[in-house]
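REQUEST ID: PR-0412
SUBMITTED BY: lab tech R.K.
PRIORITY: routine
TASK: structure prediction, single protein chain
INPUT:
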Amino acid sequence: MARVIPVVTTTDRSYVLNCYVAIFSIIQASNKEDFYKIHVLITDLSKEDTELLESLSGENVSVTCMEISDVVRNAGLQQVLHFPVQTYYRMFIPLVLPEEKKILYLDSDLCVLRDVAELYGCDLEGHAVGVVRDVPCPHLDGHDRELGDFSCEKTFNSGVLLMDTEAFEREHIREKCLALLLEDYKREERKLIYADNDALNMVLYEKGKMLEDGWNFQWQYLNDPEIIYEGHRDRYLATAKNPYIVHFAGKIKPWTHPDYPLANVFWDLAQQTKVYGKIVYKNIVDLQRQKSAFDCFENYQFPFSLIPADSRIALYGAGEVGKAFFGQMELLHYGEISLWADRDYEKLEKKGFSVEAPAELLKKEEEYSHVIVAIESKKTADGIINELKKMGIPGEKLVWSMYRKAKKK
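STATUS: complete
OUTPUT:
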């Protein structure tokens, strides 16, 4: 009798193609005797994207996109650094799939090289989760100690998570994690910079079942293995020779850095899919945007002196000034744009910009410390500032300056 292997992943619009490759890799490594029930938790996918992912269904696999907006709407989740809100969805698995007593969660920025039925069959021995330990290094060591004097030799990366859903609920793990995250959102300087990964480690410290390293091999250390603590480096490099799951953790990804070690794992799999052309095209477009992005420094200067580094800001205005500031912040990683608003947001959305209605500034006021009014004209900017104040935006959060650079003679 075929075993049923339930697997969960998540994605947003920007990650659909990478998620497609991740699911394809699961299928390629599967065996035909088992049935793989793959659920993709979503909140904002188009019908076209949903159909694309679900088209991966076959004889021994089903792929189903699950809209969970109603479940996560009131959780108060916020993006941190480069981690999208979708990463939090793993904590809600027991709520959206209560019929599954045991389930495997996988991030969508990975490639599976070994049958996950083997991983699913691991005995959790009463633990709520099965996890793979993190890679001990100075940065992680310092961060873990700031979280609560934790040892980086005992923390884990939650990109691969084998979950006993009943134990997860019984121990109120989600509620404890959300409480930690909501507390952290109130701080001027965030402590939980790795979002729910940090929260899960704080709640489950020394409580998870440790799995083989190969089930969550984090590729980012391959480019500089010397930073790994001695005593752990050899184990990491040995795992690199035969990883079961290559997790492209960190900011650098194989689709943008094909020259990195093990990037070929992604590209070899992608080349076998029907979305390979789309992935190549997207990369070309992204590279063209990046190349032309330096033009954003030509006419306008972001008000760096008025905005502390690492601030969470909202941009008002998506004209020339707003686009210039958006490009400058993206290139320099100076702070984080939590919201971009403009009156013409509907027209801009159709052109591919993630711009929202001005009313969202008030709804999401706790998510940013400054609103930069990205308008060149002082008269127009003053009018907008008055409107925003009337709307309920605190005046001390509103920033405007003379942005245009002086022309060289």
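NOTES: The radius of gyration is 23 Å.
REVIEWED BY: pending
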